[in-house]
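Service request form, structural biology core

Requester: graduate student, group of Dr. S.
Request type: structure prediction, single chain
Budget code: on file
Notes: please return the result as structure tokens.

Sequence provided:
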Amino acid sequence: MNLKKILAYIVLIILAIISIGPFLWLLSTALKSQNENIFAYPPILIPQQFTLENFTGVWKQIPFMGYIINSFIVSGITVLLNLLLSALAAYPLARMRFKGKNMVFYAVLATIMVPFQVIMIPIYLMVLKLNLVDSASDFAGFAGLILPFAVNAFGIFLMRQAFLGIPKELEEAAIIDGCNTYDIWLKIFMPLVKPALATLAIFTFVGAWSEFLWPSIVLTRREMYTLPVGINDLQGVFSANWRYISAGAIIATIPILVFFLGLQRYFIEGTTQGAVKE
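Core staff response, request fulfilled:
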């Protein structure tokens, strides 16, 4: 092994430690008993008295299961809409010929440069006028959370690149066999881009599950809270009991890890399909 590879591994290990450091500190705080000082200096990473009381305590004191169900509803529907709409929008951009196709694609990509915070107020006014807030009904509250994130430029780009990687001969053979455009998209192309779909599902689920800003604005009733908003509400319930907050944050990461591990075998292959190609 040459020196460059050794230096590369050292740098990657250091970056991995830096990345996982906050999570380890969060786990350490969640496992510490009430008698231990979590703000001790120098910091103590390994708890002197391991305890699971913080996990059981936070689960009993707030409607944690309700928050998890709300997050699953919002994240699940958001993932399904992104997969469907991104694939529908990407197919003509990748496989059809029409005037202004490149202009449309570049316009879609340009939206990536616009932060959500910039358009948040206009979107909120639209949601308010459409009566899609939780004060109207539970369904309206979920719709107000989901619709602004139902499709995005990254998903369209990723699916377009995946469709571009499919040989043209398959499409021509399907046309000869009498398949229409819809059949080609659904029965031939969609099964071939499963890695890209899995990759998009992972990114969308993580984003929807951990979204805090928009739900905290749209939601006004506690029973409609998603998990990030509910965990933030712990600061008011327990006067900033950081042990409970840390335990709640750890529980909130478990579905993300499970979802990622379930689709992990598609992830690497799917990310390589996003390489730029003409």
